[in-house]
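Researcher: Please predict.
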Amino acid sequence: MQHFFVSNLKWDEPTGCGTSELDSKQAHHLSCVLRAKVGDELTVAYAREIFRAKISDITKDTVSLEVYKPALPNSELPLDLLLVQGLPKADKLEHIIMKACELGVSEIWPCVCERSISRDKKEKLAKLSQRRNEIALAACKQSHRAKLVEVQPSANLFDVLNMIDADYILFAYEQSQTEQNLANWFSEHYAELSAALKTNVANSKRKRIAILVGPEGGFSEKEVLQIQSLDKAFTINLGSRILRTETAPLAMLSYLMLELEQLTIKVTEYQFV
């Protein structure tokens, strides 16, 4: 079943039905590319929830929908995963965006580091941002996400770290002498994360875990020292192999996705005991 995102949803509480419309780009894709017809069913995501919907009308620029409660189960993670990614060369960032969205990331923050070979030109920032968010939208639709991932415009590394408001920063460092890996870190913070899930009710502040990965040249010594001096930063060893900049974030996201999903199951079972 096709999956789309809507930015507004009006409910008729007595009937449990709602109405919404797709934006022009999604409407064009559904009506002209997928050749959908009135009466066809699909799912829509709104406010971190997924609902069944049916096409009620199709015009040149819009697709109108009837939306039905209750919300369907969705696979969003209970905590927000942020990816702070050093700008890589060529189109590697597009691949990272696509796969990170599939693996449950909440936000993507491209950043410029001292050793970044690729840098976004100011006059192209708007166009690049639009392109990257279109890739994120397509990946979120394909993986039936309940939350649309936003890719921020690229900025200086430490400007980004000041903006993300993360509770934890997991710093992937290929020359790390520490033995702390993701499994160790997760075990050490298991109680904190469990408590966060138990109190994670609607409108409360969700815990935010940032993953920090450098560009092809890695981080400079100056950057490493500055990152490690941050109170919320934890240097993570990803093993004996040196991973490419496009591999490291996906390895970290995969591990965290699986651990957080298992933690959610355990917390849910505990609440119903």
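Model: The longest strand covers residues 49-58.
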